[in-house]
Design a protein that fits this description.
12 helices; two-stranded antiparallel ribbon; 9-stranded mixed sheet; alpha/beta; 409 residues
């Protein structure tokens, strides 16, 4: 397909009204090499993921007129786009931590629907693990000590400590137990077992999670995400390109974004994340309910994130997340498969992991996997609806995207 003039809609398919917003499809997805990648730069991982996603889509690179990237380069995304040989007419680099990619996907979908772009490439890559191993960077205790953060940094409010405090509040208020939090890690590792790209695939038990070294009370080591290298890419496109796709389309049905706080003192309730807002908006815009969702990909830098996000997205009532995550409910063949690749707790976590959530959700909806990894619903059917929900900072931001195998209304 020959794209239209940059910044204007491409040729119409003839099957939609010219005055309604264009529907948006996920045209292609891909991972770069992930896990332990010692001989590549972050730029190389961006390029590798981008080439693979474009190949997955079956489209020509000339259709790409939009680009979104964050986390790399002095003038992101200009520097990364230049490295990839792209000259986009629509760009975005909104950076809100782990929720960045769901927020960027929402922005890109809006731009495509309005005709401001035809095809937008979202791409991420990081060598966070390799850089530390090689001494090119060190771990940071604080994100900064200017602005509002100056009132917390002197007291040792590390990122993990903030999540730990929130988890303790949930435990105090609702009776959530350490064993229930540990179940999240156990089931993530079980899901990773069938993922050849996962960094850790060996099973763990609740006792092993609880018996690990303490990182920030109540989080032991296995309550925390791993550190890896890796990248991925997602190509979003207008519905006009569907006939040219190499595989089945997955549709962006609805998106929601929200921000909450920077300083912990401004967080109204430690047991409620901004996913309570972004999820409600995304489901409403998609015209679906949480009960309709077949699988969920949720940001899981720590086990508590998974638990509280499940509550805030409406999969269970507030305070019932501890009971909800038990009985294998999050397993690939469970009642609500969650983080089917193993998530950040087991598969990979090279930094802002939100884009990986979209890749896994799309692949599950397309039925890309073999029987040991593919989610199947009753009767053996493929899943129809998935949600990807990213969380940024210390529950500071959230982006939620609902995806489906059918266009919806």
């Amino acid at each position: 397909m020959t794209p239209g003039t940059p910044g204007t809609p491409g040729p119409l398919s003839g099957h939609r009204h010219p005055h309604r917003p264009r529907k948006v499809v996920v045209a292609g997805v891909a991972l770069s090499d992930c896990g332990r990648v010692d001989e590549a730069t972050p730029y190389a991982l961006h390029a590798q993921a981008a080439r693979r996603a474009l190949a997955d889509s079956g489209l020509d690179r000339s259709v790409i007129d939009g680009f979104a990237s964050a986390g790399l380069g002095t003038l992101a995304p200009v520097e990364v786009a230049e490295y990839l040989g792209l000259r986009p007419t629509w760009v975005d680099s909104t950076a809100v931590g782990g929720a960045t990619w769901e927020v960027l996907a929402a922005h890109a979908a809006d731009a495509i629907a309005a005709g401001h772009a035809n095809a937008v490439l979202l791409v991420y890559g990081s060598t966070a693990r390799a850089d530390i191993k090689a001494g090119r960077r060190t771990s940071n205790l604080s994100f900064g000590a200017r602005g509002p953060l100056q009132f917390e940094a002197p007291y040792g409010h590390t990122l993990i400590a903030k999540y730990a405090m929130a988890a303790r509040r949930h435990m105090h208020q609702y009776g959530t137990t350490l064993e229930q939090l540990a179940e999240v890690a156990v089931q993530a590792r079980a899901n990773a077992a069938a993922n050849p790209d996962a960094m850790y695939r060996d099973p763990v038990t609740v006792d092993e999670v609880l018996g690990g070294p303490m990182i920030a009370d109540p989080f032991t080591k296995l309550h925390c995400c791993i550190r890896s290298d890796g990248g991925c890419a997602v190509l979003l496109a207008a519905e006009d390109y569907v006939p040219d796709l190499a595989g089945p389309p997955v549709w962006v049905l609805g998106c929601g974004t929200a921000v909450s706080h920077t300083t912990m003192s401004e967080w109204d309730d430690f047991t409620v994340s901004p996913a309570a807002v972004s999820g409600r908006l995304a489901f409403a815009r998609a015209g679906v309910r949480p009960a309709d969702i077949d699988l969920a990909e949720i940001y899981d830098a720590f086990t508590y994130m998974t638990l509280v996000t499940l509550e805030d997205l409406g999969f269970c009532a507030k305070g019932e997340g501890g009971a909800f995550v038990g009985k294998g409910r999050l397993l690939r063949d469970g009642e609500l498969p969650v983080n089917t690749d193993g998530g950040g707790l087991a598969a990979c976590h090279p930094g802002m992991r939100g884009l990986f959530l979209l890749v896994e959700a799309v692949r599950q909806l397309r039925g890309d996997y073999g029987p040991d990894r593919q989610v199947r619903k009753p009767g053996g059917r493929l899943p129809h609806l998935a949600v990807a929900s990213g969380t940024g900072g210390w529950f500071c931001s959230s982006g939620t995207v609902v995806l489906g195998r059918e266009q919806g209304s």
